[in-house]
């Protein structure tokens, strides 16, 4: 054999060796990226769950307010919200509200009167339904939340399913929105 053949053999073996090492490197890099992705997503999941538990605790506080009072007046709801310092402690919280079950025309008229007295509009959207679940209280009092006062959450399928679930189970239910 001449030296030229050896050169081709050495080149071929070198290329095969380089390819094997390169493929192994790619596999290790893929595993490293998967591990890093899992680490990041697990951390994010943990943060989200902790935040949800915190929000649940806030809601449990409001549950206590309603459980200890036969009728919660608007000023009591607003004072409790402000006393809890929720705006500063939970700045990412868009709002904490209370909805009420309105199942007949007399009750609907009574709620509409309360809403109008507080400067809000009537239960909306308009329409005949067997029952209504309007937002009666909502804090903080910003423009977006003021628009939501009187909104019948039962008028939307996703929210009405959440209301039904909560009524049936007595548990909180997170919406997909």
UniProtKB/TrEMBL annotation:
<dbReference type="InterPro" id="IPR042240">
    <property type="entry name" value="CHASE_sf"/>
</dbReference>
<feature type="transmembrane region" description="Helical">
    <location>
        <begin position="6"/>
        <end position="26"/>
    </location>
</feature>
<keyword id="KW-1133">Transmembrane helix</keyword>
<dbReference type="GO" id="GO:0016020">
    <property type="term" value="C:membrane"/>
</dbReference>
<dbReference type="GO" id="GO:0007165">
    <property type="term" value="P:signal transduction"/>
</dbReference>
<keyword id="KW-0472">Membrane</keyword>
<keyword id="KW-0808">Transferase</keyword>
<keyword id="KW-0418">Kinase</keyword>
<keyword id="KW-0812">Transmembrane</keyword>
<feature type="domain" description="CHASE">
    <location>
        <begin position="68"/>
        <end position="177"/>
    </location>
</feature>
<dbReference type="GO" id="GO:0016301">
    <property type="term" value="F:kinase activity"/>
</dbReference>
<dbReference type="InterPro" id="IPR006189">
    <property type="entry name" value="CHASE_dom"/>
</dbReference>
<protein>
    <submittedName>
        <fullName>Signal-transducing histidine kinase protein</fullName>
    </submittedName>
</protein>
<dbReference type="Pfam" id="PF03924">
    <property type="entry name" value="CHASE"/>
</dbReference>
